[in-house]
């Protein structure tokens, strides 16, 4: 299943691996209304797009759907699902901050499939930009 973009006015599928982004936050939704948030690196071993080299290889992001065993089992059982990229980030750290905040804010809903927040992140220099992204996503998703 191919990724779709949550906000097609801001993002285009071709933007993902054009060299401006290191990771993205995604949401997988199922027909029963359940959903899961995650983060995926776009390039192998790259946490900051500034360290991207011509020899850097892409990760398996196009075919990826989750590290969650529960989500994997649901997908493997044949349930209909959609993979949406919510936002792309120049660093994995920024993506992990937004993922954690989304899980903390929306994770208490009964249809959320996330079981834990598993990250340690350093608050970055563009806090106000990251906060704006988070506000936009929370307005759309809650």
Overall 3D geometry?
A: globular
Estimated share of beta-strand residues? 15-25%
Terminal residue distance: 25 Å
- Topology as a string of helices (H) and strands (E): EEEHEHH
Calculate Rg over CA atoms: 15 Å
As for the number of domains, it is: 1
Total helices: the number is 3
What's the β-strand tally?
4
Class per helix and strand makeup: alpha+beta
| Biggest beta-sheet profile | 4 strands, mixed
Strand line-up across the major sheet: 1-4-2-3
Overall pLDDT, averaged?
Answer: 94
- Helicity, in percent? 25-40%
Could you name the ranges where pLDDT drops below 50 across 5 or more consecutive residues?
A: none
List keywords for this structure.
142 residues, four-stranded mixed sheet, SegE-like_GIY-YIG, Putative endonuclease SegE-like GIY-YIG domain-containing protein
Task: Write a structural description.
This protein has one domain (4-141). The model has no long low-confidence stretch (mean pLDDT 94). It has helices spanning 69-76, 92-106, 127-141; strands spanning 4-5, 23-30, 35-41, 81-89. A hairpin with a 4-residue loop joins strand 2 (23-30) and strand 3. The longest helix is centred in the last third of the chain and has 15 residues, at 92-106. The two termini are 25 Å apart. With 142 residues, it is of the alpha+beta class. 27% of the residues lie in helices and 18% in strands.
């Amino acid at each position: 299943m191919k990724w779709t973009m949550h906000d097609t006015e801001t993002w285009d599928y071709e933007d993902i691996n054009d060299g401006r982004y290191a990771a993205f936050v995604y949401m997988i939704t199922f027909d029963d209304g359940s959903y899961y948030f995650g983060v995926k690196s776009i390039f192998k071993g790259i946490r900051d797009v500034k360290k991207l080299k011509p020899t850097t290889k892409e990760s398996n992001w196009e075919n990826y759907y989750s590290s969650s065993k529960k989500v994997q089992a649901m997908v493997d059982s044949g349930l209909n699902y959609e993979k949406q990229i919510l936002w792309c980030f120049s660093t994995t750290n920024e993506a992990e901050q937004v993922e954690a905040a989304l899980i903390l804010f929306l994770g208490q809903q009964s249809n959320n499939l996330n079981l834990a927040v598993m990250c340690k992140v350093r608050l970055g220099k563009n806090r106000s930009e990251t906060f704006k992204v988070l506000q936009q996503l929370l307005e759309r998703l809650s």
